[in-house]
């Protein structure tokens, strides 16, 4: 079967891969690491598939040299990883843990030696448990603690890490972690979870300032985004789609980009939220978009405390993770983002895009990536300034409440032996980076 022919990308386009600490590192009891909300969540009955956890995961903590070797073979220009807050500050406050910082020091040095740009995400959902016990993201103090943590890692690594992302996908923490309880910390607050969005946005802005003070050169975001479709063209469904998009997309993008909060969210935000908007909108150098799928909604049914009903996106192929494969949704959202924010929008990085499919001969993943890159190129032709693309993920890994069932990696991981096996998509992506497609 012939490989899909792709449009060309600029010569300086940045090709990368992404992972996150709790999903790949393992070693949760080593090196002075403190306890995180995900340690607790995974130990809580009926929260995670088959009682699985990230306690060992891909053992990246010990095997990072092998994984960097894979990335060197792949030919990527950048590796986006996350730093575990409880590994650096076991209690979430106070002095840094030297062993935790030393691990990231070694990782960054090894990446630089391999000619791979380190892209550091400061937070990917693994809040120290003691911070959660004190209120977590429902507490404004967490934003201040986070800025102190960002200052610590910036001071240690900014001399070698040129690209920084303070917080990964705050929407997921707000909606899935505090809103509907599917992710840690497992609270079911529905719209009363909205203050956690504001406190994460404030933490982002304060961390931007802290990282700049530490010498960080480029600072951006990594927000989960996608178009929201109305189930029908009725006024009720269209209004529901607007409110859903406010919650999923604009509650996070708008204030960071200096446009304030959507009006529909004001009633749910903490008192005095407007005073924090200047800090939240601290200038950034790139805007990160994580794209997986669109959302379809309709007007809320009677008794639904949310301002919309979620529906199924039908008529598209599905991944093994139950997501519809809608490549044009990436183009649609990027155009919407540019039209909404205009000159406020800095250059864009696609900081995550990927899919779950089984097997090492993963033709379906190749097709997924090819079609999404084609959609991305169309958005670029339509005027969206996109500078890079990161595949999720380098490795099969721990996929949160679904445990080890979904397989998102370009590299297969045998979790019993920790053997890594590059998939067909790994070879395809390598050839794409080399310009062979």
UniProtKB/TrEMBL annotation:
Pfam family, one: Glyco_hydro_1
Molecular function terms, GO-annotated: beta-glucosidase activity
Signal peptide (from-to): none
Active site: 169, 352
Catalytic activity: Hydrolysis of terminal, non-reducing beta-D-glucosyl residues with release of beta-D-glucose
Cellular component, GO, one term: cytosol
Keywords: Carbohydrate metabolism, Cellulose degradation, Glycosidase, Hydrolase, Polysaccharide degradation
InterPro entries attached to this UniProt entry: GH (IPR017853), GH_1_N_CS (IPR033132), Glyco_hydro_1 (IPR001360), Glyco_hydro_1_beta-glucosidase (IPR017736)
Name recorded for this polypeptide: Beta-glucosidase
Family: Belongs to the glycosyl hydrolase 1 family.
E.C. number(s) listed in UniProt: 3.2.1.21
């Amino acid at each position: 079967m012939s490989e899909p022919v792709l449009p060309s990308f600029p010569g300086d386009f940045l090709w990368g891969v992404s992972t996150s600490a709790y999903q790949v590192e393992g070693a949760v009891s080593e090196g002075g690491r403190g306890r995180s909300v995900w340690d607790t969540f995974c130990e809580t009955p009926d929260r995670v598939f088959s009682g699985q956890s990230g306690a060992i995961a891909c053992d990246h903590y010990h095997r990072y040299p092998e994984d960097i070797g894979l990335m060197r073979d792949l030919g990527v220009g950048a590796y986006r990883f996350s730093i575990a807050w409880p590994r650096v500050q076991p209690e979430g406050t106070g002095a840094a843990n030297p062993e935790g910082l030393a691990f990231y020091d070694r990782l960054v040095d090894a990446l630089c030696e391999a000619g791979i740009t380190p892209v550091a995400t400061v937070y990917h959902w693994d809040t120290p448990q003691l911070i959660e016990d004190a209120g977590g993201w429902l507490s404004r103090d967490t934003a201040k603690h986070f800025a102190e943590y960002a200052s610590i890692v910036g001071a240690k690594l900014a001399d070698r890490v040129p690209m920084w992302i303070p917080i990964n996908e705050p929407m997921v923490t707000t909606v899935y972690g505090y809103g509907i309880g599917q992710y840690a910390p497992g609270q079911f607050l529905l719209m009363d979870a909205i203050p956690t969005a504001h406190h994460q946005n404030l933490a982002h802005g304060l961390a931007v300032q802290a990282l700049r003070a530490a010498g960080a050169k480029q600072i951006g975001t990594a927000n989960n985004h996608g178009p929201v479709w109305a189930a029908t063209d009725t006024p009720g469904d269209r209004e529901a789609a607007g409110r859903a998009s406010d919650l999923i997309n604009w509650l996070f993008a708008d204030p960071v980009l200096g446009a304030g909060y959507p009006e529909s969210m004001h009633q749910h935000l903490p008192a005095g939220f407007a005073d924090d908007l200047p800090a939240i909108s601290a200038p950034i150098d790139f805007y990160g978009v994580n794209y997986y799928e669109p959302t379809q909604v309709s007007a809320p049914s009677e008794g639904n405390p949310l301002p919309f009903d979620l529906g199924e996106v039908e008529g598209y192929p599905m991944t093994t993770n139950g997501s519809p494969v809608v490549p044009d949704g990436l183009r649609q959202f990027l155009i919407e983002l540019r039209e909404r924010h205009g000159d406020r929008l800095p250059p864009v990085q696609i900081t995550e895009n990927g899919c779950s499919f089984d097997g090492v001969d993963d033709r379906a993943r190749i097709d997924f990536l090819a079609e999404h890159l084609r959609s991305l190129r169309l958005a670029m032709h339509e005027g969206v300034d996109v500078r890079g693309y990161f595949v999720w993920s380098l490795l099969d890994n721990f996929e949160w409440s679904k445990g080890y069932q979904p397989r998102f990696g370009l590299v297969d991981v045998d979790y019993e032996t920790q053997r890594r096996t590059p998939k067909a998509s790994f070879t395809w992506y390598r050839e794409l980076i080399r310009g062979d497609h």
